Amino acid sequence: FNAGFDNIVVSSWLKKIVDEHSKDKSVLIKNPIDLSVYHSFVPIEQREKHSIGLLYHSGEHKGLKYSIEALKILKEKYKDLKVYMFGTSDPKEEIPGLVKFIKDASQKDTVKLYNNVSVFMCSTINEGYGLTAMEAMACGAAVASTDYEGIHEYGIAGVNCLLSPVKNVQAMVENVSRLFDDDKL
Q: Which of 121, 127, 114 is nearest to 143 (CA)?
């Protein structure tokens, strides 16, 4: 951080870290999304009620194993559960309820996926920002996420998303179930 470059960060929590280790203050430029692209065109009441979207990512920091455990429990509870995923590599694990996987999804593909699901689930352990949940929100999907640092750049627990402790599969299941079972929420 002291190599003489301008340090640019995407989130407030990263700015604090960088600024603690640098003689010069970093520049905060939050990740934007284009709301003319990421928007809702399928009303929530027209979406499959028990449908979940999520990112497939094998990086341990993304918490995929916790998503899969939650999906196993949710599939038992909601027999009609439908899971839609996208990612850059094919799933190596069995994904309960998986009806569609899009490898190397285009922006158009992700917007369509977000507009197809009622809930977007994110089990991230930690990352700088977390664009996929924000994109899903913009497309009208309810978001159930872990309470990782980056989500706080745009997510407010109980206001525009439901947050569960990181690595807590049962809490994630409870939040997704709340969203499935309470149409007003």
A: 121
Instruction: Specify burial of residue 182 (Cβ count, 10 A radius: 0-12, 13-18, 19+).
Output: exposed
For the chain, give the mean pLDDT.
Answer: 96
Any idea what DSSP says for residue 26?
A: -
Eight-class DSSP state of 45: G
**Regarding beta strands 82-87 and 27-28, do their DSSP bridges make them parallel or antiparallel, or are they unpaired?**
unpaired
- For 101-148, how does the pLDDT look when each residue is reduced to its tens digit (9 = 90+)? 999 999 999 999 999 999 999 999 999 899 999 999 999 999 999 999
Cα dihedral sign for 136, 139, 142, 147? positive
The terminus-to-terminus CA distance of the chain in angstroms comes to 43
* Whole-angstrom distance, CA of residue 146 vs CA of residue 161: 10
Question: How many angstroms separate the CA atoms of 18 and 24, rounded?
Answer: 9
Q: What pTM value is reported for the model?
A: 0.94
Residues 161, 133 contacting (CB under 8 angstroms): yes
Residue 64 sits at φ, ψ, to 5 deg, of: -55, -40
**Angle between helix 169-181 and helix 64-77 axes, rounded to 10 deg:** 50
3-state secondary structure of 107: helix
For 140, residues 6+ apart whose C-beta sits below 8 A from its C-beta are 39, 40, 42, 43, 44, 114, 115
